[in-house]
Amino acid sequence: MKKVLITAFEPFLDVATNSSYEALKAVPELIDDKQVIKEGLPVSYRRTPEELKQLIEKHRPDVVISLGQAAGRTKVNLERVAVNLMDANAADNDGLVLHDAVIAQDGPVGYFTKLPVRKMYDHAQELDLPIDFSLSAGGYICNLTMYTILALCETEYPDMIGGFIHVPLYDGQVEDTSKPSLPLNVITQCIMEMIRCL
Questions:
Q1: C-beta separation of 141 from 43 below 8 A
Q2: Bridge-based pairing state of the strands 81-83 and 110-112
Q3: What is the pTM assigned to this prediction?
Q4: Which of 174, 185, 194 has its CA nearest to residue 132?
Q5: Three-state secondary structure readout of 17-81
Q6: For residue range 28-71, what is the model confidence (pLDDT) as tens digits?
Q7: What's the rounded Cα separation, in Å, for the pair 69 and 9?
Q8: Which residues are catalytic?
């Protein structure tokens, strides 16, 4: 049985809930032949990488997928690239703002995802699910988390694969129905189907 560690983030900025975490809570702990381990992460430049490393060391998963919320997106996005950069105007939940900072001084400029994203995308198209590719996980904690996962795949856990998936706001988070969002059950279904592709 494959062991899949799925992480999602606590609420951040001025949003009371986080769509990635709300969807994660609804994902079952067993999907086909895959054991799903669900864990939360802080929105923190300083704390997130170390907590993620501890979770991987604790669970020793075959696969790590981190989920993050991306307001303004209309589909669930399979992130393809993480870059060695921390740069965002928003403060993290510790109040820290970073610009032009590297994640790893001696690390590569970037990493490509190790998830089978083409297979995931094709599977989503067959099921008519709102899933697409993305070439930027941003410069905030989501990108930091993705870079950390992929660096660990390269350096410490060569048999592990991992990557990042961004999800839109869910409909319960938006009062203005013209703002992009998806029903929470649709986001959850997308995540479950992506796990089935592993």
A1: yes
A2: antiparallel
A3: 0.96
A4: 194
A5: CCHHHHHHHHCCCEECCEEEEEEEECCCCCCHHHHHHHHHHHHCCCEEEEEEECCCCCCEEEECE
A6: 999 999 999 999 999 999 999 999 999 999 999 999 999 999 99
A7: 8
A8: 79, 142, 166
